[in-house]
Amino acid sequence: MNSQIHNLLNKWVSRIIDGDHLRDALASGKILKIKLGIDPSGTVIHLGHMVPILKLKQFQELGHEIIIIIGDATGMIGDASDKDSERPMLIREQTHENGRIFIEKFSKVLDLTKTKIVYNSDWLDKVNFAWVGELAKHFSVAEMLDRDNFSKRYKSGVRISLQEFLYPLMQWYDSVALDCDVELGGTEQYFNLLAGRRLQEAYGQRKQDIMMFDLLVGSDGKKMSKTSPNTIAIDEAPQSMYQKLINIHDDLIVAYFELATDANLEEVEVVKKRLESGEHPNILKVELAQRVITMYHGKPYDVSDVSNIEKISLKNKKLLTGNRWIGLSDLLKDVWLYQTTGEVKNAVVWESVKIDGETMSDPYASVSIWSEWILIEIGKKVTKKAKRVFL
């Protein structure tokens, strides 16, 4: 097996269903049809969303046919695979506009001239109620309720609409409509991916191979959420991406190199060995940040460019009461530079923390905030101007 196929089958990949078949198909030189379904329920694309897109890029570089399904029909209902409540319905125009924005952002990674974009309304808008019944007979109510999120909601008395049961039926039929060789998806899509294979078999098709990926957690180690500070969007300003990436937890460095960058497995292994040898994690975080920023902005972040100084308003309750002093730890956490006091302590020791040009040696020091603006510098990596808000 050549190195490209080895990386394709192993990097980012959590599990492959019918892996032996996929390995043989790739080695045969056959051009495979690879599909990924997109739920256009919003427009924020973060690093976690890009994991399967980066895998599509690998397939594309090997000459395979890439198909992205914009779920404009299914998106009007919304995927409940990882949700604990019903989702608000969208109108068709919203799903189309969101899909357009998604594709535009994916162009940072994919060659759109070699990517087929389809909308599942092309086949789902043509069906009737009898067709829905024909699909539904292949699955039981017990199987639906056995899904993790539905099971939790059912046991806790949280409403599950029948409409939510329709979403997976519609999504599963996408596999039949396109008859592809491989489908990609996150581990939270396990039930849907398997069900799609079952429908293909019922319709006389060969069951497509499945490639699944682990979820990339946020910078704080918790689930990446579009509304949380732990999310790193691919179109964020370089300074913002840099700040968040150099502040990820140390134990996430390897996972981020593997899941969020185009580094191959050999490069990821080198990162592991450097950490094991005692190299300071912050050195690797800087390399990680610059690699990710270059992927999505075309060049590294220039830490010396004063135009990149971020201006942010302080919101700490101690400040809003008119206090003119703040603890260094409170200040740095308030502007999202660090999550914990322990991280602040490490920064003071390792990073050369400066407030208004003064190097701080005590993480418990009080900082004067009599002036309207505070200049915060963390080594040569981050510079912020924080605005004092008086009430």
Globally, the shape reads globular
CATH C-level class of the largest domain is Alpha Beta
Overall pLDDT, averaged?
A: 82
Low-confidence blocks of residues: 80-86, 306-311, 317-322
Instruction: Name the CATH homologous superfamily of the largest domain.
Output: HUPs
Q: What percent strand?
A: 15-25%
Which class best fits the helix and strand makeup? alpha/beta
Q: Could you give the order of strands across the largest sheet? A: 1-6-5-2-3-4
- CATH third-level topology of the largest domain: Rossmann fold
Percent helix range: 40-55%
Number of helices: 17
Rg from alpha-carbon coordinates: 24 Å
Terminus-to-terminus distance: 66 Å
Count of domain modules: 3
**What composes the largest sheet?**
6 strands, mixed
Give me the strand/helix succession.
HEHEHEHEHHHHHEHEHHHHEHEHHEEEEE
Total number of strands: 13
Q: Indicate the CATH architecture of the largest domain.
A: 3-Layer(aba) Sandwich
